[in-house]
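Blackboard transcription, Thursday session:
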Amino acid sequence: MFLKLNQIKKSFGTGENRVQVLKGIDLELEKGEFCVLLGPSGSGKSTLLNIIGGIDSADSGDIIVGSNKMADMKEKQLTKYRRSHLGYIFQRYNLISNLTVRENIEVGAYLSKNPLSVDDLLETLGLKEHQNKLPNQLSGGQQQRCSIGRALVKNPDILLCDEPTGALDSKTSIEILKLINEVNERYGNTIIMVTHNDGIKEMADRVIKLKDGMIRKNYTNEFRTPADMLDW
Amino acid sequence: MKNPLNKRVLREVRTDFGKYLVIFLTLLLFIGLISGFLVAADSLIYAYNESFDKYNVEDGHFAVQDKLNRTQIKKLEELGISIYDIPFTEERIDNGSEVRIFTNRDEVNKASIMKGKLPNKANEIAIDRMFADNNKLKVGDHITSDTHEYEIVGLVALSDYSALFKDNGDTMFDSVVFGVGVVDEATFAEYDKGNITYTYAWKYDKAPKDKKEESDVAEDLMVDINSMVALEDFVPRYANQSIQFTGDDFGGDRVMMQVLLYVIIVILAFIFTITINDTIVKEADVIGTLRASGYTKSEMIRHYMAPPVFITIVAAIIGNTMGYTIFKDFVADMYYKSYSLPTYATRWNVRAFVETTIIPVLIMVLVTYLSLSSKLKFTPLQFLRKDLTNNKNKKAVKLPKNLSIFGRFRLRVIIQNIGNYIVLFIGIIFANFLLMFGLMFPEILDDYQKKLPDNMMCQYQYIMEVPISAMDEDHKLNSMFEMINYQREIETDNEDAEKFTAYSLEAKGVEGVIDEEISIYGVKDDSKYVHQKIKPHEVYISSAYADKFMYKVGDTFTLYEEYGDEEYEFTINGIYDYPSGMVIFMRQQDVNDMFDLGKSYFSGYFSDTEITDIDSQYISSVIDKEALTKVSRQLNKSMGGMMVIMDGLSVFIFLVVIYLLSKMIIEKNAQSISMTKILGYSGFEISRLYIAATSIVTVIFLLVSLPMLQGIMIWLWETILRSQMHGWFYVFVSNKVLMKMFGLGISTYMVVAALEFIKIKRIPMDIALKNED
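(Written on the board underneath:)
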């Protein structure tokens, strides 16, 4: 098993205001698996993603990635873990405004000892002709492609996507999802995508539905539906 | 692979070019100026020190009544010295100033030619360069004396006159009314022999090891020479103010200049950190993403430190280059206005490099690192959530309910920008400190000169001088006759003259106070010049002495002989209002007894009219208004330029600090300003909200800083006067200076406010629409 979560619990607030966001999550993912975390707002899906990504910590429970137990890691080790194993994609693209498309992707490449070819990636992402543009010269979809490129270029073991289509229209969203799918197939990264869009679940290997901090459903799709055939 | 984030550094600078340019120019100006100052000062002091060998400066000189013959010189040289003939005459020239004229010197005290050449024809003269500058004389001009019309063929610096003291006993030199010059042998031969002072310089065949030995050797030498020829004057080099003053006085302002630079760097570093903090808040989501992707905290710190450090390094490199070229000459000119120094060669100065390049960069690195380290301590998630506050429960500050919306709005702007305003306050304090320094100093000197007539005990204080020939122990009979003659010659018929005894002792080892020479005046019981009834054995000290040493009635202190082991204890019976000197007043009889001077002994006269019936050879020094104001005049002359620079710099700093900080406040609020525009507020109303907030704060800071600085400045000056300078004067900051400062502060701010008004007008409305936050 590549990623194993064991009884992950997380609460926010104190006293009467204390809210338990994750109430004991157990989850196992194989390498290269495409997993969609579904759930309404407040269900704990982003918190779970952040805990897997090492930018938030669980109150209790274990996360094991490969042979590393995250609970044992200090801040520096966590940074190293993120640097070596993780790629992040956010709803808001968070690109560096005064770096070009190419340079934004190079910011990701810098973190890896064996990065993917930036040129190949630009080609794959359909950004070759925009590589010298600044983010504010791009459409929302192009900016999200760029942020995918930045996350992907270091060839991470796990790609964490937090509502990557949340700020995009349906047509662009489908393009982005196709791209993520392609990435998954071509590079074999484990992908965990948080979304509240139920239509996306069909393209994943595994679907996990969260509600009130608990896994309500955890199943695998027999067939993965291509992104452009999703019922949006 | 190079960190691609580095590519942002130059772009960041380009994006906010105005701000970085102002900071860069400020750094450049200060680093350049101070580098120039250090380089010029060190090069000049090196040239000065080198001049002792290069121009073969005397080990001392003495004067005699008549020219020495060869046999006498040969005999004197058997004392282990080489003798050089340096006679002079003094002539008053057509502009009223006086020139001491020597012949060209080939062997000792040689001249450094600053411009033109040395005279080699009749009626040619080369005069001191500083004297020429002060009297607006140049090569090719003609000057006329009673005996000659001279053509100035050269401007020189005589190595034994780097400070133009006319008499060694003078408290200060005045290079406007007194200068030196050289003529050729033939011209010199034309002078009336009766007006020649036969002076001889000496050099030791074997140089004394140290100052103590030099002093002992000189004392022996004086006795030995006097046993062979009647001495009229004897001045070893270590006691010659014309030679030593420059070296002692030079570079005293170095520490001040360095502190000035470092304070500026710290202020700019704080401005940078505020800018960076704003950037970090603005880029929180990007930082969060990068940190989440694996960028370390130290990589982020290095990244955000790069622009200020880069700007500082570039400013330091260019500033140093300018220091060695443009500013060095500017500073050297200032020194040349104060001292008559020889030509100098610019020297590579490691210390200046460290102080103006390495240390400023280190300060910038340290301040920005500490600030960034604290600002970037948040977790990636906190950055992503833009949750960058330590206080989770931070609530809005409650404002008075009856305040208008405009008042509330302004207060919110002030509260929001409290960090910026703290730096603004520091900047105002610093700029006003410089401004106060620049404005108060000329006023203090002016006041000193104006009040001097009221502060003088009498118009003239004459100190008599016992001829060296009257102290020759090897020829006691001759000495006795000389002494009898002396005592007859120093009597005067002037009815204003009142005899007094003067003795001097050293105040040493008083904590926080520089060692000071204290004059002890023994005055007559019914003195008409010291208006204080002094009873037997009573001790009064001057108000200046009491202020400097912080003594009060009843205190006991000890004074010491300068060259001896004797010490004397005094208990203060009263303080006499005399602000012009460090003086103890006692009955004349008590002073004579205390120092075994004899019942009828006196040292000189107090008088309100000039004493004309005592030969000048018996008068050691005359302290009159002219002599007392020389110090303030010379200080005004040598430091006047510096004060103007201080004023200019302070206004500049003021402008820079207010401009940068108010610019940041406006930028930080660009979105809100844009929104208020959308809501329908006019440009004027928006300015009332944002500019008025800063205006209120600036006026409050100005008003608060002035009395604060007034106290600090007086304390600081008094501390410097106590610990670093001889003498004492009343330090004050007048209301006129305070008003000028306030006026300058407000005027400077108004310029910035006008710029900000334009800036606010230019903020487009779409900022509010585009931005999601």
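Lecturer's comment: The first strand of chain A starts at residue 3 and ends at 12.
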